[in-house]
Design a protein that fits this description.
By secondary structure, this protein is α/β, with parallel strands linked by helices. The protein has one domain: Rossmann fold, CATH 3.40.50.450. It is built from 7 helices and 7 strands, in the order βαβαβαβαβαβαβα. It has a 7-stranded parallel β-sheet, sandwiched between helices. Helix 3 links the parallel strand 3 and strand 4. The longest helix is centred in the first third of the chain and has 16 residues. The chain starts with a strand and ends with a helix. The model has no long low-confidence stretch (mean pLDDT 96).
């Protein structure tokens, strides 16, 4: 399974959520899944580092057209990645291949870009795991999902919540 990890990449970063992000990545690797992230910093990057440290496959989906732009324009890292795909799409457009190319999405905190990734995942009927208590938009996703769900999407049982990284990945496996 390919699991995209989306969340806060800039702005306030909390040490306890960084630790949980790393553990999410590590658990994705332990379960032999592929982790995908936007090639960015913050919580998604920490999850990528956790997966990479546990010999997992890490796929970055960069908004840049090449490595130079990835580093110079965006200030994004190039380590802890098995494969980097340069889309040249910019932000938020790179969110489409990131989410559409995944089987499931994990949301950690987040702002407007993460909300965009959540809504793409919702419309694509992907399995969605939300790290409860991580802050940002995760505090609002329950009501948003409930308001937007209908017979077209039928997402009631596809959006799951946990504040425990191992449990979150395990729950995604069981959907």
């Amino acid at each position: 399974m390919k699991i995209a990890v989306c969340g806060t990449s800039i702005g306030p970063i909390k040490k306890d959520i960084l630790r949980k992000s790393w553990e999410i990545g590590a658990e994705i690797a332990r379960q032999k899944h592929v982790i995908m992230f936007g090639g960015c910093l913050g919580y998604p990057y920490e999850a990528a580092k956790g997966a990479y440290a546990n010999k997992g496959k890490v796929m970055g989906i960069s908004p840049a057209k090449d490595k130079g732009e990835h580093v110079k324009k965006y200030g994004f890292p190039t380590d802890s990645v098995s494969e980097m795909r340069y889309t040249g799409l910019g932000i938020p457009e790179r969110n489409l291949p990131l989410v559409k190319g995944s089987d499931a999405v994990i949301i950690i905190a987040g702002q407007i870009g993460t909300l965009n990734e959540f809504t793409i995942a919702f419309q694509e009927k992907k399995r969605i795991g939300v790290l409860s208590g991580s802050g940002g938009i995760t505090e609002m996703l329950g009501p948003i999902a409930e308001t937007c769900d209908n017979e077209r999407y039928n997402m009631k049982n596809k959006v799951i919540y946990s504040d425990n990284p191992k449990e979150l990945v395990k729950k995604l496996n069981s959907l």
